Amino acid sequence: MSDRLKKVFILHTNDIHSHFEEMPQIAGMLNRLRAERKGADIVTVDIGDHIDRANAISEGTMGAANVAIMNAAGYDFAVPGNNEGLTLLPSELADAYSGGKFRALCANLSLTDTGAPPPWLKPYAIVEKGGLRIGFIGVTAAFTQFYRLIGWEATDPFEAVACTIHELLPHTDVRVVLSHLGIQNDRKLAESIPGIDVIIGGHTHHLLEKPEQIGNTYLFAAGKFGKYVGVVELSYETGTRQLAGVDGTCYPCLDAAPDPGTETIIRQQKRLSDDVLHAPVCRLDHALPVDWQSESALGNLLAAGLKRHTGAEIGLVNSGQILESLLPGVVTKEALHRMCPSPINPCLTLLSGEDIRQALEESLLPEFYLKRITGYGFRGYMLGGLSVDGMQVQFDPEGKPYQKILHLAVNGEPLEPDRLYRVGTIDMFTFIIGYTTLARGSATQFFLPEFIRDLMATELQKDSSVRNSLRLDRWQQINRERSIT
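Predicted structure:
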């Protein structure tokens, strides 16, 4: 390399999702990459969804464990992804990040009550490395309706990037967007906004082992769950501070020696989490089983909780949200979290009788209840059949597909195909996943910050709810010749 050329390295991770088992090797790889570039100018960034409350350590510490590990790993900047921004209240995220030695960046989030970002969240930062002035801009996916329910305003990330780039151009030599927007939006950023030199992305869990170039912009991403650490290599002329080249790659963390300090922090944070999660929720006199293929007590209990919490006529949820049964005795927060880890929220929507019937018919087919799904908050194994409350379903298990249901009633009255019913269900269905006709609802109202496990805790503390859940009478198998019409 010419004496006139120097390099700056950006180490990056994204979408780790609280995979603590990977974090010692992530830290080990970061240490190795820094050691191999000893004396070089290095910046380390995370592009969001480091925290995931589906993990018990993150749940018990409300993300503080993740921040402690990020501190030890030497991060300089972090972008809040949707798992940070939507599963923690602004005050809770502030508490978690208050222990951070890194700076949190996001240009398209502000507090609803002030119209400005909180003091701990900045839209951008400018750092000087070896004489090169680098502007880092953070943006996150704008789930506007959801964010507003917990006190955030999420604005258009494209507008936020365009305005910030315009502001930074006179003061920086290189502009880097830290984007928790997904690969398609990253490509659109590169195509539509001049002045971006590098986009380091996340959210859609994409891996770019070599950078993707669009015009004068280079795109990078390091996959998911901490399997890789990415490196961006910026070469520049020392005199003019002009970029001479952009390159980089991703390194598999499996090749790295685990960092002992990170292992120690994880053990410490697990003990703190255990102290919180071992608190009792209730005591059960009877076992409450779950069954992903047929009606069960825990499926009934969750459907009833959704119906009650949302003020609906019908409660409707897939049984795959519940990962294990509950035994008699004390139920702790840890058991409840283990049983129902998904960070999924309740919602109320208006659905036609015909759309409800279609979903219930699908629920009787193995290609649906055995379907494996990922993403959209779901942390289970398979979709599972539909659990209901406020409904009675008579069906012939030997009937033809989509003709198995013989009679449907809502609170004792026959289901009307054209009528709109108030249905308490889950936000996951609104993303057109699983039982897709359940996404056709209108006037949908989301309930945040409650998770479905919070509703389960409420129902478990009511003896009447527990007793009602044990009555397996929502789904009735019946011979067609004896059906009620």
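Summary: The longest helix spans residues 260-277.
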